[in-house]
Amino acid sequence: MQRLALFDLDKAFQTWAREFTDEHDLGREAADWLLALDRAGYPHREVFFAKVRDHFALPNRPMNCGAATAGACHTSSAAVPQ
User: Fold this and answer.
1) Do residues 76 and 50 make contact, with C-beta atoms less than 8 angstroms apart?
2) Which distant-in-sequence residues (6+ apart) come within 8 Å of 13 by Cβ?
3) Digit-coded pLDDT (tens) for 24-76
4) What local confidence, expressed as pLDDT, does residue 74 receive?
5) What is the distance between the alpha carbons of residues 2 and 37, in angstroms, rounded to a whole number?
6) pLDDT in tens, 12-23
7) Which residue of 7, 13, 46, 74 has the fewest CB atoms within a 10 Å radius of its CB?
């Protein structure tokens, strides 16, 4: 089944992953890791971001995906690094 939205969710998530890894100085391999984790199909962003925090040893902070890519982050009450 094709996912439909007013914008490309995959491209929005790719943009967010690059911005996130740039903001945290994590490097290109980190963005690739985030994209692979997303493709693994974690339906709940709370689980996804817990894995991100653990993998990169990031502090637990409120989520901020940014207005342009908020849909790609499937906002939830999960806390993630800013």
Assistant:
1) no
2) 35, 38, 69, 72, 73
3) 999 999 999 999 999 888 778 888 888 999 999 988 765 455 444 444 454 43
4) 46
5) 20
6) 999 999 999 999
7) 7
Q: Residues 26, 38, 35, CA angle at the centre, nearest 5°?
A: 45
Per-residue tokens: 42: 């974690």
φ and ψ at 79, to 5 degrees?
Answer: -95, 135
pLDDT higher for 13 or 1? 13
Question: Dihedral sign, CA of 29, 33, 82, 4?
Answer: positive
Sign of CA dihedral 3, 16, 75, 57: positive
Q: How far apart are CA 77 and CA 82, in angstroms?
A: 14
The two three-digit tokens of residue 10, written as one number: 């995959």
